[in-house]
Amino acid sequence: MQQQVITYLNEKTMAAPLAVFRILFGLLMVFSLIRFWYYDWIAKFYILPKTHFHYYGFEWVQVPGNWTYLLFIICGFSALFFAIGFKYRISIVVFFLSFSYIELMDKTTYLNHYYFVSLVAFLLIWIPAHVHFSVDAHRNSTLRCEFVPRWYLTALQAMISIVYIYAGLAKLNKDWMLDALPLSIWLRSKVDLPLIGQIMDERWLHFMFSWGGALYDLCIVFFLIWSRTRIFAFVIVLFFHLMTKILFPIGMFPYLMITATLLFFSGEFHTRILKGVSKLCSISYKKFCNGISFRSEKYMQNLTVSVFTVFFLLQVLIPLRGFAYPGNMFWTEQGYRFSWRVMLMEKTAYANFKVVDSLSGKRFYVQNEDFLTAFQQKQMATQADFMIEYAHYLADHFESQGHENLQIFVESYASLNGRKSQVYMDPNVDLLTLKDDWKHRSYIKALKDD
Amino acid sequence: MFKKTSILLCLFLTCFACSDPMETSMFTDNFDRAEMLEFWADDIIIPAFQSYAENLDGLDQAASSFFTDATATNLEGFRSAWLAAYLAWQEVSLFDIGKAEELGLRNFTNIYPTNTDLILSNISSQDLNLELPSNFSAQGFPALDYMLFGIEEDDALILARLTEENVVQYVQTLIDRLIDLNASVLLDWEENFRDEFIANAGSSATASTDKMVNDFLFYYERFVRASKVGIPAGIFSGSTEAELVEARYADIYSKELFERSFLSVKNFFRGISFDRTQEGNSLEDYLDHIRATNGLELDLANSIISQWDSVDSALTELSPSFANQVTTDNTKMLALYDEMQKAVPLLKVDMLSALNIQVDFVDADGD
């Protein structure tokens, strides 16, 4: 059995799917970055805010002021270069590093699909996606290949499968399945959409979308793998992701996932795409179809296999870490990020910080808008690690103004999926005694569920 | 294949249709946001701006009566016209949308504390540009408050001072400016913005309902709760600051001004028309509609209103002068603040999540 799997993974397969994915993924990233710039988000999210929220272990990542624009330029060009397969290895490494650095600058902007981009870029560093239909392979005939060992393609497919299946499993909870939450909250406000708007208030529709969404995430990969259902599955992929695009402000995510699912299509399908592209750009495609199969150096192959083994082991385990914590994961958000929990909750919150001089008893409240952007305030109020970091920031600020013996408390309320608002953090805990760590956050009040 | 699927789908739908006891019919009525917006525009907002315009006219007339005949009686008339206009302002301040937002009406009308040094230097200065943000605090009602009540020690001296030519000119400039600003806002409402406002009945972040609700929350939290009550009570600084009350030179009116703005908040929420004679579609109704459609336990609209009733009862304890109140017994002022504060999570958390409106338009992707 094990031998069979190994043989299967080492079989040669066409390199065309990797080339098509490389091109589409790269161009999508270029477009994403331009869009980000165009909306002026570089300034709004990174340059203008007075402070930033850091990921655990990445406190050293700082926003480089106006150089952030350069960072985006570097990131954009590296994406363009790896898309066309020009100096591929360097480009993809630079892209992975610059994109990840951008994401690490402030966790306010965390999105699952940015994380997905970083992971895919990391995988692509090790994958020979440039041996077929690329500038590098065009110029260097020794690099040119028509086939690659199957496992490179399998790695990317596995990454996509992990995303979908974990996203599906995460939907199997009471709110999503039995109450159609938070979808019913979101859909109800879409009644003004043309054509479909009038049914957005309907209860059955909320349940259809909830159950359909869960079913989709859990099954789609299997339907894509099986060649007989593939076309049908892809139609569903298009419908599902374009529907989410219409209904929710989720940016580039739908396009990213649509692109990614193309990886499940046959080599012949991708060859046809590449032939079409070649014709359009008057490039000779023939020379890439040289019958040669890619082989890397033995040490490189061993290294890649080891890296991938560790990588996928982590990818399977990381999303599960949330279960190690007591309490409702949606409420505490312990182990929530990096777990493919997508569009699962509607959380509105409010946090009011009280600064106390522990000796004199003098106290005052903080106006959050003096320190944080609206976006940061919104994220901060729903997540304990943000509040702790913010409290420490406030303490530094007020100490520099001459205040002493500071204690900082927070009166916070959150509403999860339309429940009545409840006290979130223990209002009697001095936030300055806490730090951001991986321990269970016992100072988050338990969710009272009705 | 298709047949089977449709049968399954029908079964599936029927299951949900009967499993939910709250759902008596498969088709529920959607809340008519356009109707609510129309009521807001025609029965609350535009009449409020019209009334404010009339009161500003009254202020202008009282001012010219005083300037032609500077008697103590006319000064009294001038002052009460100022108060009437200031009270009328409290009912439009909430509507920082459209032209008002574009012009920054609130910034030019009611920034306090007023900057007396700047006013005095403006009076003697030849070239005056009140459109500069640096002059926010040298104009509007707080500046008039200073000129009418605080520029000199007592009424006799004030009266004398108010006859000086450059002082007269400055006062008149301030009044003209209030009139002009409001005239362009009102004109825009009547001629363009009303229809645009009502037509923009969607649910995007830039739709009228979403923007208005955000304005409403911002106004309540920042201008009513913090500026009028919290800041003088020392909530954000740790010590009371009586000189930061609204209308500090005529502080005897500070409570009345607060009451009027708070009333405009409540009436807006409940959909009570400006003339107090009608009730229309409101946020209260919207919340009730959502509660009914979803079978929610919490009667949110009612919780908010009863919390505001507690604000009203805390208010009865207070002296007409908030400045006096924070100096003599700040605990009562703090109690008022606490009651106002308790409504904030209900509004900013529960109401926003029920209406699915994002607090402050955050222009970013989600996932």
Task: Give structural notes.
The complex is a heterodimer of chains A (450) and B (367). Chain A has two domains: 2-168 and 223-229 and 264-322, no CATH class; 346-433, no CATH class. Chain A has 18 helices and six strands. Chain A has helices at 2-10, 16-38, 41-47, 67-84, 88-105, 112-126, 135-139, 150-171, 174-179, 183-188, 203-225, 230-247, 253-261, 267-281, 298-317, 329-332, 374-382, 384-400, and strands spanning 12-14, 147-149, 347-357, 363-365, 406-416, 422-423. A four-stranded antiparallel beta sheet of chain A has the order 4-3-5-6. A two-stranded antiparallel ribbon of chain A has the order 1-2. With 367 residues, chain B is mainly α. Chain B starts with a helix and ends in a 12-residue tail after the last helix. Chains A and B meet through helix 3, helix 10, helix 11, strand 3 and strand 4 of A and helix 1, helix 12 and helix 15 of B.
Brief sketch in words of this structure:
The complex is a heterodimer of chains A (450) and B (367). Chain A is an alpha+beta fold and 450 residues long.
